[in-house]
Amino acid sequence: MVHAEAAAAALLKEHDDRTPFHSIRADYSIDDLDDAYEIQASLVRRLRERNNADIAGYKIGLTSPRMQTMCGIPHPIGGSVLRNRVHASGGKAVLSDFVHLGVECEIAVRIGRDLSDGHLPSTVGEMAEAIAGIAPALELVEDRQADYKSLDMLTLVADNSWNAGVVLGEFRESWPDLEAVEGVVERNGEVLDRGHGRDVMGHPFVPLLWLCRHLAKRGNTLRAGDIVMTGSMTPTYFPSSDESIRFSLGSLGAVEYRFKARD
Fold first, then answer.
1. Ramachandran region of residue 138, left (φ > 0), alpha (ψ -120 to 50) or beta?
2. Which residue has better confidence, 219 or 70?
3. Partner residues linked to 183 by β-bridges
4. Going by DSSP bridges, is the β-strand pair 163-168/86-88 parallel, antiparallel, or unpaired?
5. For the packed helices 33-51 and 4-17, what is the interaxial angle rounded to 10 degrees?
6. pLDDT, tens only, 137-158
7. How high is the pLDDT of residue 259?
8. Which end of the chain is more exposed for a tag (fewer CB within 10 A), N or C?
9. Cα 35 from Cα 219, distance rounded (Å)
């Protein structure tokens, strides 16, 4: 039987102590994903209490083949985003505040209405009807110097899927064909990488359908105003010096954040 409360307390202490990421599954009898998400729920509750912060929404990770290959995990994972970790475009992060900070470039959505547990969307079209806005976004991920060659998926999920925050561009109430939209990642004005909406499970709304089922299994649902990160179009980038990362989505605009080595 999983020792969820003890595992969550240990993970929180490891973050406080800046301990490098490592598997804790044997120490706390973590046997499967249900165990991992039980620990995650306890960890998120502790973080909410510590920061006096509500849940602003959710992240969906590993939604593209490139990200799944990078982490060696063949399916999506989820996590919660706390309101005190939601940032506006144009701000900055200090790298020394983290063990090892990564940046992922994504499409964020804002949910327009509460979704009933008994009537969840089942198609991309139905999902679109529940969405109030689309924005370019960056997810901040704290991998604590994880070794990707021996990455333990269950500990990763238990650790709130590594979410350390999100940076949001301006939300738009209408959007073009998201399968075809191109995302361009720039570092200090130079192109680093490119991706398309179709790289995220064929369409960025497909991960949302997965999230609906995932939350329903755990007695939860998406609510009006929730922000959801739909997954990175390109592999995680790790800033290593003073630099600016910009992610643009054509007519949907852009989001930008600065990273400083030290404050």
1. beta
2. 219
3. 195
4. parallel
5. 60
6. 999 999 999 999 999 999 999 9
7. 97
8. N
9. 15
What gap in Å lies between CA 219 and CA 263, rounded to an integer? 42
CB 139 within 8 A of CB 257: no
Query: Alpha-carbon distance 142 to 163, whole Å?
Result: 7
Q: Position 9: which residue type?
A: A
Cα–chain center distance at 259:
18
Instruction: Tell me if 158 sits within 8 A of 170, measured CB to CB.
Output: no
Residue 263's pLDDT is 73
Average pLDDT over residues 227-231: 97
- 36: closest CA among 73, 84, 70, 69? 73
- Residue 101 near residue 20 (C-beta atoms within 8 A): no
Q: What angle do CA 242, 135, 78 make, to 5 degrees?
A: 85
Among 167, 185, 179, 182, CA closest to 252: 182
Measured distance CA(43)–CA(142) in Å, rounded:
15
- Strands 182-187, 227-232: pairing is unpaired
Q: How far apart are CA 72 and CA 214, in angstroms?
A: 21
